């Protein structure tokens, strides 16, 4: 059994992601060809995520191009906001004494919270 049970093993996908990052850094002139080759060798030999993190720790954060579409969570929050306004407006117009919108608004809030928690759970592990 391993003497370091708290370390997480790296997957092939994670190794490829770090290798692409190193190749990009080399193309930008941040690494020499020798450094790139040395680090790429270490990437494919790495067993754990923290080993991969050490290989890119001195590089600036990866810049991602802006997304073409808004994130699904933002769309969900927008839909919840619009429905909230519509439901409360309907309650005001109906003249009901009991604030019945509390029930659908509760479930809309729960659905948004579950969506946010699910997205946080699925987020890739940072190196």
From TrEMBL:
In which organism is this protein found? Amycolatopsis pigmentata
Q: Which UniProt keywords apply?
A: Membrane, Transmembrane, Transmembrane helix
Q: What range(s) does the DUF1707 domain occupy?
A: 8-60
Instruction: Give the residue spans that cross the bilayer.
Output: 73-92, 98-118
The protein's name in its UniProt record: DUF1707 domain-containing protein
Pfam families with a match to the protein in the record: DUF1707 (PF08044)
Query: Which InterPro entries is this protein grouped with?
Result: DUF1707_SHOCT-like
Is-annotated flag, keyword Transmembrane? yes
Superkingdom of the source species:
Bacteria
